Every structure is written in structure tokens, then in C-alpha cells.
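User: Study the shape:
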Amino acid sequence: MEDNEILELFRQRSEKAVTSASDKYKSYCMKIAVNILGTRQDAEECVNDTFFKAWELIPPNDPQMLSAFLGKLTRNLAINMRRKELALKRGGGQTEAVFEELSELIPSGSDIQAEHERKELVGEINAFLRGISKRKRDIFICRYWYCDSVSDIVARFGLSEDNVSVILNRIRKKLRQHLEKTGY
């Protein structure tokens, strides 16, 4: 089923919307959730929550890309679950490594008081990403958006682990320079 048809089912409040969205995007959402949470059981709970949340949010929201909308919902829900797990000293996903690698670049949430400042920061990161090659941007997004492990990135791009680590390190260094130059 096409995304526009699934979105129309959501707008009509048809329960088939959730089933159709799940049939099409469950494995995509599971990949994101497993990368962040580290366990299939937690990921399944998160993905179920994703489709429930989509039911609550569509309408009034009308996403342009259903996959991106569901991916972002999954990521946010998984990160929230992960934060709760960390308080209980559970886990095993890639989240700590990803956040640690970026921690020196991006101020903590408590330092960003206004939504406007957050949007400006996101805009600067996006501007930086538009200025690098597609391959490097894809590697960066796999690691820092989807929380893919370095070994997953190695398999996907056919590079060595050292090569991926060097690429990510160089991108972070250039991003740091870009953010410092723009006042972050």
C-alpha cells in the first residue's frame, strides 16, 4: 500500500491504517529501535508504541513522508525508553557510544533553553551536512541518526572498521569547527 493511502486511512480513523503502516514499516522501525535499545523485546514494545503514537498524532499532523515521521517517532520513543533503562543500569545498544562521540560538539539539553536556539543549531548541522559528500553524510546519518554500530556501517558501505572510524572522526572534527565558527 502506498503512503498516501495509509495516511488517508489514518485521516479516516480506520484501524486498517495501523495495520498497513506496521506491515510496511515495522522492520524499518525495528532496526532503529534495536540500535538504540539493544534488545529485541524492548524494541518491539517501542515499535508498538510508535504505531499507537502515530494513531494519536495523525490527524492533526499530516506528515509529508510517512517513513520519516515513523522513524522519528521510533527514535524519540526509543531514546526516552533508553533514558529510563539507563537509570536502572540496563541496556546494550549503541546510544551511549553515539552520544559520547557527539557530546563535545553539541551542548547538553539544559544549555539550550529556547526552541529557537535548538532550531538554529539543527539548521547549522543540516547546513554542514549539505556541504559534505553524500557518502560521508550517509555514514554520519547512519551512525548519529539511526545509531548504527560501526560494524553495521562497515557492512553497508564496504569499508574497513578503521576507515569508518577515521571518516566519522574527521566529520566530527569538521562539524566542531563549523559549529565553533558559527558561535556554538
